[in-house]
Amino acid sequence: PNDLIYCIYTSGTTGKPKGVTIEHHGVVAMQNYLERLYKVTENDNVLQFANYIFDASVWEMTLALYSGATLVMIPSDKITDTVEFEKYINANNVTLTLLPPQYFRQTNINTFRVMTTGGSASDSDVVKHVKENCRYINAYGPTENTVLATHWEYEHGTEVPENIPIGKPISNSRIYILNGENLCGIGVPGELCIAGAGLARGYLNRPELTAEKFVKNPFGEGRMYRSGDLARWLPDGNIEYLGRMDEQVKIRGFRIELGEIESRIREMEQIKDCAVIARTDSTGDKAIYAYYTSDAEVSGSEIRDRLSGALPEYMIPAYMM
Fold it and tell me: In sequence order, what DSSP letters do the residues of 60-73 get, joined into one string?
């Protein structure tokens, strides 16, 4: 149970990804949860949507291969074209999948038995997009807790919440919301912390960071992971995600620290000052906007070219103003 099963790198917050080392017991705990929640049979077809370097792929492989279902491998060119994607899904009778919420909203598919979104925040439009004959689950979890930590399932016919909850702890996991070392009451924002069988061993070759994030659980046995996510308990026992406690944002599944982008732009000689924000663009997706001032004429493309030598592609602002 304590042997390593994989190491997957998170996108990091400063362009320096961290290797998260997961042990076998974490995947076994997740499989136990998935099998019971999704009631998987040999008639199910699970889509392999995520690239294998992302931990969502572990969810897909575990849901299918540990439960006797079929794992459907989709060519990458089918994903980039939603029309082709829909044809492929229908032709292969995919019944279970995990998709980014913004991507799912662009599709129109009737074969799903259970539709799950994850990787970024869901919203009421996503829930309304789900077909009546399909269950909808909103999943949340950091890589550091073997893909998942909580889930929320919509009950058809009920009112769709304004802010879609991330739900309640999955089996074999415990959630604490803390202000420092103190537990927060209902409705009080605090840091979301996770304990249980899904916790990673730590970060590869990063003992100091491991000790900082994976601390002794003051409320029970074992360790607790301090996620840095801001959340609060709702009166019905669900959890509402409120964002990051720092400047970190999540865009297309990547964790990004906006302050790091700002510092890189300010390093450029001709730039006097800048501000970087994340906001929803015309497509409904979150994008990075950079606003800058300069005494000289500097084009956005020139700034992007210079940033590309210091930051990964996903941290390059889409809009320069």
Answer: HHHHHHTTT-EEEE
DSSP-derived secondary structure letter, 161: P
Paired sense of beta strands 173-179 and 182-183, if any: antiparallel
| pLDDT of the residue at 296 | 85
Closest CA to 227 of 176, 183, 182, 192: 192
The tens digit of pLDDT for each residue in 176-196 reads 999 889 999 998 888 999 999
* Burial readout 238-262 (b: 16 or more C-beta within 10 A, e: otherwise): ebbbeebbebbbbbebbbbbbebbb
Cα distances (angstroms) measured from residue 33 to each of 38, 147, 148, 206: 9, 12, 10, 30
**pTM of the complete model:** 0.78
Cα–Cα separations (whole angstroms), residue 277 to 125, 136, 180, 307, 312:
23, 31, 27, 16, 17
Q: Which amino acid is at 102?
A: Q
